[in-house]
């Protein structure tokens, strides 16, 4: 059983809108619709503030607000995409305190199995009065939804239309009982036509004949793109008339999306009356059979009507637009390459369309004007942006604002006024292009979409993986580097210190609020530093005979309280300036003198012989201190040969008093101690009630009690044998509240680079977990960062352990070579930490403990398609496609290239251009004894081709020096088709070429590398994806299903195949007998190889609707992998989608899978009973017609994000009981709620 969880949510923006509420603060909001989520922001003077979000179970297509002005609420409508479209009614409210809430009021299903989905126009519109909404989802019909006075659902009906190939639709006028819709469509003769129809709510239909407001009007089809995809369809905009317009203008339709922007006005009232009379006469002739008159009338119908005004559109297909100001008739318009222009319509004293170039942005999918020349640009292919239009150019001052073809006349901004004042009646449009960009970016929102390829790699050897993706497109192609970890901002450095092993901060007095000094121990000596101010850090090592011992490494050092006896002979603790230093030879007591700002010795070095009982001095000879720990009133020493000593300080007599002593023997030998700790679990107490001891050879840890009065320190509990020896220990309470001792954990830093953790409760160690932070021994220090109790762990890499969401969490700190760390808070550096690396000390702040760090390497028009890592050269090779932007219907120049980047700095090191007309399709790197090579698959696309018929596979030899990587072709093989995919099998190369799989061997026998074809498999339709493991090849046939092959004796043999209609887009082998894949209908599936007599079969054992298109599977995980012995689950795969989602597939043990399946069923039923959506229905596998009767629900997969909602009900006993009990006795869960909580918390740590 697999669990599907989200590591990074979908970041592609599909729509956005602004709405306002009456008399509320804040009153204006921005809604950003992503694929499966709505984000709501308040518009404030200082910028956008995120208010809340809402998950949508469906693929969001459009969002609209119902324009019913209310004091505190508004109705929002969300339209989801096929295969099961739905209209979701939302109510957004703001209370008097400014708190917002959003609830679902109704789900209206639009799904129809027999209907054909709308090919071009899948949209939602709401009339300006807020009374009617119209949905176009299927061909030949519209769903009309009547809204109540609050903007909620009242009733709905279907209205048939004869315009089958509808391109766009909009409301143009409304009345109480009649609404008019403008439609643009392609008729049966492939002609573009614009018309209006009246919608009657009472009659439940659209008028069968066009409305006289705008009868059928032919639109020049040559002005529009022949592609007619999502970017190529024209858009119609209603332009109302206002007071002050020319008398002959009564409103019109603006058409954008073609080579020209055209304004057609509505028929005036007088003409409408004449046409109505003429229509009646024509109808009379039709009834009398006057065929000549009928033909004449039909010809007149298609007589071209001239646009009222037009202006050239000199750029690519329009993808987004928005109103700037309705009354001023200004519109932002963006094309598919992010080129933004402002269209201004003047209807006074003649009609003029003025198009002003503004600058370049991310390729727009949605534009929303906010206020004060600020607008939101949502993008699918690049980062979404908050932008502002400036009155003067703000960047790129030496270049034209936007490129315009030389054949199109333009004017400068300075010449605009003179042209308008001296208006030429023959000119109805101007294009204004100046110098520099008028667009300034205020804020950017990271977007990974679309992710076409990815690799998971540890480039710097730190043990912390990072993801490198091919992201973006059009004008904003980019490589994204994704790492998980905490933010560290550097504030100060101390250079020149090497081999640092420990750091301790010191205060002038124990109870002082800030630290003033830092003691640093290296392998050979000790250094002391004083923090004077923000720009000064002084060394105060002083006289080694009167101050700190500096010629030896320090084992421990700390401030300490002054312990006294009160009248009742009980211990009291007072603030003091005393400091204890522990070295291998003994202990030293020092006192800080604020007058000279130095530490001076109170007494001589207290050696170990002074602790010997009378007559037993020999038992202390030859011993030295190997580990130590100090708290406010206690000192614990670990001596060689297995002795632990507990001390306290008698300040008055200036001497150390031995309180307890214990010798450890394991297997009749002295047990060598590796680490000790005496950190108090109760922060209000100056002493510890537990002492923790770790051992080298036995690889275990014991917790001792110093309480018994007999002088012994008995063992309370013991850990099991660990994977390696403990190197550092902490028994740590992660909450500062002394009443919460339930969050005490035993943390053990191991020599193999792992951290073992146990929950310590009721003198027992529970819930053992293990997390790796590299391969070097781990040292740990408790650290208070701000108000949060944390632990800093240093090994091969650094991690921060902290308590959040009622569980222990790990977050890597993205720093290398950190050998020691400690907290530090001074006047100059509050709430900071100090770290030691190979160069010295670094002081800085830690924020955002569990942040996802996304680094972007912009490539512009070079859109990355494939990426691979070449470890021997420490570089990434990226296959790119560059499309030079062209005007609509003009030929675009397409070029392919291979670019090479350094895997740390991402500096560009090499570039290789493919042949003219070639596009790269796949990359595969391999290494031989002679060097590193890159195998490249490329296809040549010709305009007349319906299927690729020419391609080649070639090998590049990669040679590098310090500054660049050179690439040269060493061998090439021409293929008759498109080589869609490459994979490595038994040190050979397998390629998917159209319908077949070809295996090549790299032959170097002659001294030159030659690609020799050794095997082929040609029993498929269109093989587009390959995966391999050992000698097994898995292939995905894009218009059929999957097959599993074995390469033996230079031949390909069929192991098994699936004969269903699967339409796979991506496949991956989990093992030799199991596989995972995704198809074009947004489903995930798994198969396993089963024996059936003498043959093997592929049995589908998992099917699940994901709701997104998966482009890549990768084995492994990005986050630190925590292994819990009580939660048998393992992160197995990462997957990447076109909407920018990164998901994790977690493998579950069978017994746990059964329990979580029952939990998902009960949780789904509970939410559905609370008038929520049907989770089972949503995750049921779907095809183009919706859900199949063969699949009643998903199987083989569980929804991890949905299961984690269970944690929301942990504090609600009533809801918790209903979920645990189910709806009947058989549905009652046998697993406890505490166990479920623990499992789900472990699951959360894996994504």
Automatic annotation (TrEMBL):
<dbReference type="Pfam" id="PF10433">
    <property type="entry name" value="Beta-prop_RSE1_1st"/>
</dbReference>
<feature type="domain" description="RSE1/DDB1/CPSF1 first beta-propeller">
    <location>
        <begin position="17"/>
        <end position="393"/>
    </location>
</feature>
<feature type="domain" description="RSE1/DDB1/CPSF1 C-terminal">
    <location>
        <begin position="896"/>
        <end position="1207"/>
    </location>
</feature>
<dbReference type="InterPro" id="IPR050358">
    <property type="entry name" value="RSE1/DDB1/CFT1"/>
</dbReference>
<dbReference type="InterPro" id="IPR015943">
    <property type="entry name" value="WD40/YVTN_repeat-like_dom_sf"/>
</dbReference>
<feature type="compositionally biased region" description="Basic and acidic residues">
    <location>
        <begin position="285"/>
        <end position="301"/>
    </location>
</feature>
<keyword id="KW-0539">Nucleus</keyword>
<dbReference type="Pfam" id="PF03178">
    <property type="entry name" value="CPSF_A"/>
</dbReference>
<dbReference type="GO" id="GO:0003676">
    <property type="term" value="F:nucleic acid binding"/>
</dbReference>
<dbReference type="Pfam" id="PF23726">
    <property type="entry name" value="Beta-prop_RSE1_2nd"/>
</dbReference>
<dbReference type="InterPro" id="IPR018846">
    <property type="entry name" value="Beta-prop_RSE1/DDB1/CPSF1_1st"/>
</dbReference>
<dbReference type="GO" id="GO:0005634">
    <property type="term" value="C:nucleus"/>
</dbReference>
<dbReference type="InterPro" id="IPR004871">
    <property type="entry name" value="RSE1/DDB1/CPSF1_C"/>
</dbReference>
<dbReference type="InterPro" id="IPR058543">
    <property type="entry name" value="Beta-prop_RSE1/DDB1/CPSF1_2nd"/>
</dbReference>
<feature type="domain" description="RSE1/DDB1/CPSF1 second beta-propeller">
    <location>
        <begin position="493"/>
        <end position="844"/>
    </location>
</feature>
<feature type="region of interest" description="Disordered">
    <location>
        <begin position="277"/>
        <end position="301"/>
    </location>
</feature>
<protein>
    <submittedName>
        <fullName>CPSF A subunit region-domain-containing protein</fullName>
    </submittedName>
</protein>
